[in-house]
Write a structure and sequence with these properties.
- The chain is α/β, with parallel strands linked by helices.
- It has one domain.
- The chain contains four helices and eleven strands, in the order ααββββααβββββββ.
- A hairpin with a 2-residue loop joins β6 and β7.
- The protein starts with a helix and ends in a 10-residue tail after the last strand.
- The model has no long low-confidence stretch (mean pLDDT about 95).
- This is DUF1853 family protein.
Length: about 250
């Protein structure tokens, strides 16, 4: 199985970062049709773009949904971009239209805050923007003036990824963010500061971004003392680790 197919299967089977409560929406109920040999990805190499492409493929191959709009940019009357809508789907069971936003994220718990490895990103800030801005784009007059048939779309947020804790620091693990309940099954990764790297008692193998979600199936040379930047790695047993500079998150370097 190639890496694109592995990532596709990971999306189809991995639980959400939050418990399944509105507007969070799972796709675990959708039957998964494997990618065909001709399915390839040549778009933006950033992980989020690849993730959205594969989410769209999952919806396209499902008899429950038709993809009506993908990545619709919304502009105001001056031409200024207000944002973009990931997906408008037609649910063939309810015969209603649905607005879906999809995202994959990785966050590290530090002093009560879930930070991205590049600490400019934080779970509470990202979630607030998705709930109050991105999911509301389909309710704006600018969008509805172009697409008046979608005035009653429902809102759905597919947010997957992994949450990481530092096993060398005693810290209470929050069970909520902005009042929404975190999925404890996804608090499954570890992280540590560079100065704590030698406390890890098994070899780590570095990951490029295409393997952040799925991990590796073959291993080369293990990670030595990381440079002064964050590194994502895993053990052969499948435990995921982020190693971050001792200055993190105050001076995050990607």
């Amino acid at each position: 199985m190639n890496q694109l197919q592995r990532f596709y299967q990971w999306i189809a089977t991995t639980p959400l970062l939050f418990e399944n409560q509105e507007p969070f929406a799972s796709i675990a109920h959708l039957p998964t049709t494997p990618l065909v040999a001709s399915d390839d990805y040549s778009g933006n190499p950033r992980l989020g773009f690849l993730y959205q492409y594969l989410c769209t493929k999952l919806f396209e191959t499902s008899s429950q949904y038709d993809v009506v709009i993908e990545e619709a940019q919304v502009n105001d009357h001056t031409g200024k971009t207000l944002g973009a809508i990931d997906l408008i789907l037609k649910n063939n069971q309810t015969m209603r239209y649905e607005h879906w936003e999809v995202a994959i994220k990785f966050y590290l718990l530090h002093q009560g805050v879930w930070y991205g490895p590049n600490a400019h990103d934080q779970l509470d800030k990202k979630l607030d923007r998705m709930l109050t801005h991105q999911l509301k784009m389909s309710k704006t007059s600018e969008f509805l003036s172009r697409f008046p048939d979608f005035k009653d779309v429902s809102e759905h947020l597919l947010l997957q990824g992994r949450l990481y804790i530092n096993p060398f620091i005693d810290e209470a693990i929050p069970n909520q963010c902005l009042g929404y309940t975190l999925n404890p099954s996804q608090i499954s990764g570890h992280w540590c500061f560079q100065s704590q790297f030698n406390l890890i008692n098994e070899p780590l193998y570095p990951l490029d971004k295409t393997h952040w979600a799925t991990g590796l199936t073959a291993f080369d040379e293990p990670l030595t003392q990381p440079a002064n930047r964050f590194v994502h790695a895993q053990t052969k047993q499948g435990k995921f680790w982020f190693i971050v500079p001792d200055s993190w998150p105050a001076s995050s370097v990607s």
